[in-house]
Amino acid sequence: MDQQNRPLRKAAPAKRITLPRARKPAEIREIFERFRAANPEPKGELESVNAFTLLVAVVLSAQATDAGVNKATRKLFTIADTPEKMLALGEGTVREHIKTIGLYRNKAKNVIALSEKLIAEFGGEVPATREALESLPGVGRKTANVVLNIAFGETTHAVDTHVFRVANRLRIAPGKNVLQVELGLEKAVPPEFGRHAHHWLILHGRYTCKALRPECGRCIQNDLCDSADKRVT
C-alpha cells in the first residue's frame, strides 16, 4: 500500500485535566488569617525607590530572581531613577548594568523604549491603569498587576509561578493557567486580605511550598493541605 492510500490514524483524545474543587470561603479565610498572623505586613523583595524604578525592576525580573535583579539595579537606580535619566544613559550603558540578568539585551531595549514612551505619552510618570501600563514595552499583565498593587495600592493578584502553585495546592483558586488563577483569586480572597494576598502566596511558594521539595513539616497550612504534592514527614 502506498503512502497516499494508507488509512489515517485517529488522533489520540486530548487528556483532560480535572481541577480540584475550590475550598469553602471559611477555609480560605482561615488560610489568610494564618498568613496575616505570621507576617502582618508582607513586602515584595524587589528593591526600588519610586514607581518608575519598581516598574523597571519588575520588567527585569522576568525569568530572573529578585536577588539577581537587586544586585544589578542597586547602582543603576542611584544614577537613573527617572525615565529621563534612564534615557540619557542609553541602551548600551543600561545593558552593561544589567548584563548579569537573563535576557539582558532585550530587557535593556525595553527599558529604554518604555522610558521613551513614558516621557512622550505620560509626562514622565508611571500610569496608574492596567491598560496604560500594558501599552509599555516589556510590560504584561503580571507586571502591571505588581505595579498597581505596590505603587498605587490597588488590590490586584499578580500570578507568577509561586502564586500559581500555591493557589492550586491549597485549592484557594484552582486553575489551568495564570489568568484562571488570577480571576479565581479575585473572587476567593476576602477583601481585607486582598492588598497583601499575592505577597503572602509568593513568599510561601518561594520559601516553604517549593515546587520540587515543599517543606511541609514547617508549613503553617500543613493541616489544611491535601495536595498530592504534600510530603509526609
Automatic annotation (TrEMBL):
Function: DNA repair enzyme that has both DNA N-glycosylase activity and AP-lyase activity. The DNA N-glycosylase activity releases various damaged pyrimidines from DNA by cleaving the N-glycosidic bond, leaving an AP (apurinic/apyrimidinic) site. The AP-lyase activity cleaves the phosphodiester bond 3' to the AP site by a beta-elimination, leaving a 3'-terminal unsaturated sugar and a product with a terminal 5'-phosphate.
Cofactor: [4Fe-4S] cluster
Gene that specifies this protein: nth
UniProt-annotated binding residues for [4Fe-4S] cluster: 209, 216, 219, 225
Domain spans labelled HhH-GPD: 60-207
CDD domains listed in its UniProt record: ENDO3c
Tree of life domain: Bacteria
Reaction it catalyzes: 2'-deoxyribonucleotide-(2'-deoxyribose 5'-phosphate)-2'-deoxyribonucleotide-DNA = a 3'-end 2'-deoxyribonucleotide-(2,3-dehydro-2,3-deoxyribose 5'-phosphate)-DNA + a 5'-end 5'-phospho-2'-deoxyribonucleoside-DNA + H(+)
Top-tier EC class: lyase
Classification via PANTHER family: A/G-SPECIFIC ADENINE GLYCOSYLASE/ENDONUCLEASE III, ENDONUCLEASE III
Gene Ontology BP term (one): base-excision repair, AP site formation
The protein's name: Endonuclease III
GO molecular function: 4 iron, 4 sulfur cluster binding; class I DNA-(apurinic or apyrimidinic site) endonuclease activity; DNA binding; DNA N-glycosylase activity; metal ion binding
Keywords: 4Fe-4S, DNA damage, DNA repair, DNA-binding, Endonuclease, Glycosidase, Hydrolase, Iron, Iron-sulfur, Lyase, Metal-binding, Nuclease
NCBIfam families for this protein: nth
Pfam families: HHH, HhH-GPD
HAMAP family assigned to the protein according to its UniProt record, in alphabetical order: Nth
